[in-house]
Write a structure and sequence with these properties.
Helices cover 34% and strands 40% of the residues. By secondary structure, the protein is of the alpha+beta class.
């Protein structure tokens, strides 16, 4: 019995000792490092748009524009570290031929007025039916002499004379038709006429099919002293900037590695400072997490800059570093693009194991 009790007691001590040695003490510390670096590269997206009735000609003009752009850059000493085509496509649109001037057609309108004396109700009915068949717009009754009705005949012609003759011919035809309805010609009185000139627009415009060719590409320039030359040449050669001028740094990975080391050492020093008065020291890191952020000022293009300069408003932030502008006058045509320093922040969180000295 004593042997069994002694064995159980020794087993319990061994278990407790093992459990105490397996406890891992941990401490979490952070490090943050910031650095400002001037950009050394700029990335710009461009678009060439050409239009022509012929798709082939529009494509050829697009290629010529691109070649001229390259040639002008070379002549100015602007060296591009990269040029990459992003897309090339065409779209059809329809537009009026601007070479065809709008036309108007001139005609004349004669209004001939006459009165008819009606003495029976039966003849009034016949007159109304006749007016409907001949599209006479209205019949007006004379309120002073209630048996007299006023009507108008309206006829058009290419000339003033022809419109009058057309109206007179219609009047003579009317007399004959009303006579057949037992309305005597002697009861019809011509009152007068008026003529007017009418100018009617003629739709002589024809829609033409237009082929629009779009060529999108990006360039990278590392010598930023030529940036303004690049943008000036693009403007002169009808090469449009798309979006923003995006500044960057070429040795991004190297700088981030350097900031990682500095942030890690900062976190480690914090941990050592925490344990300075204890019997513990830092051991190997168990978990390391990191993040990096870039802060940029964003101004998208010349138009946006003009609005900001004239109103004093700040531009919105952007994920890309973009051009800052230096203007020496509201009416200055050329804008000076200058990059700003990029602020890089490296955050690191380290979970260290703690051991006894």
């Amino acid at each position: 019995m004593k042997k069994i009790s002694l064995f159980l007691l020794m087993t319990l001590f061994a278990t407790l000792s093992f459990s105490a040695d397996s406890i891992t003490r941990k401490v979490s510390v952070t490090g943050t490092v910031e650095k400002e670096i001037m950009p050394d590269t700029a990335n710009i997206s461009f678009r060439i748009i050409t239009k022509n009735k012929s798709l082939k000609v529009a494509g050829e003009e697009s290629a010529k524009t691109l070649e001229k752009f390259k040639s002008d850059l070379k002549a100015k000493g602007v060296v591009l570290s990269k040029m990459e085509t992003k897309s090339y496509f065409s779209q059809k649109t329809y537009d009026y031929d601007e070479t065809i001037k709008p036309e108007t057609k001139t005609t004349y309108r004669t209004t001939l007025g006459f009165e008819i004396s009606i003495d029976t109700f039966e003849n009034i009915t016949k007159l109304i039916e006749w007016a409907q068949v001949n599209k006479i717009k209205s019949i007006k009754r004379n309120y002073d002499e209630k048996n007299i009705y006023y009507l108008e005949i309206v006829k058009d012609g290419d000339t003033k004379e022809s419109s009058y003759n057309n109206a007179l011919a219609a009047f003579n035809k009317m007399e004959n038709e009303l006579s057949g309805l037992n309305i005597n010609e002697s009861n019809i009185y011509l009152q007068g006429y008026s003529s007017q000139k009418i100018d009617t627009p003629v739709n002589n415009q024809k829609q033409a099919e237009i082929n629009n060719v779009y060529s999108d590409f990006t360039v990278e320039i590392k010598d930023l002293k030529y940036l303004n030359d690049l943008l000036d040449i693009a403007e002169k050669d009808n090469v449009d900037i798309q979006g923003t001028v995006a500044f960057d740094i070429s040795n991004r990975e190297e700088i981030e590695s350097e900031l990682y080391r500095d942030a890690y050492e900062q976190a480690k020093r914090k941990g050592q400072s925490i344990l300075k008065s204890s019997e513990l020291v830092l051991s190997d890191p168990l978990v390391v997490s990191e993040s990096v952020s870039y802060q940029y000022q964003a101004i998208n293009d010349v138009k946006e800059y003009d609005a900001i300069y004239n109103t004093g408003m700040m531009a919105p932030s952007s994920k890309m570093a973009t051009a800052d502008f230096d203007s020496r006058g509201l009416n200055k045509a050329k804008v000076d693009y200058k990059p700003q320093a990029l602020k890089i922040t490296k955050d690191i969180s380290v979970l260290f194991e703690m051991v006894t000295k």
